[in-house]
Amino acid sequence: MTDRDTTLDIVQRQIAPFNKKGIAVTEATRFAQDLEWDSLTVLDFVANIEDEFDILITMNQQAEIESVGQLVDAVTELKAD
What we know:
This protein is mainly alpha-helical and 81 residues long. The protein has helices at residues 3-15, 39-53, 59-64, 68-80.
């Protein structure tokens, strides 16, 4: 399992409590459109991701992240810094 695969697995586990619709989460899953998250849910989720990986995701970065795959890429990049 690659580092990216591990990150994806952790992100998917972090999404589970917020996945009220019970949809299958893939890298293409979009937070606003598919999961129908509001801004408060996004803030809670991002805080969990930041704590899990000990990183800081800026508001500008958050604005650019629309899908699970994009989040995994961003987390992978931030962990490398």
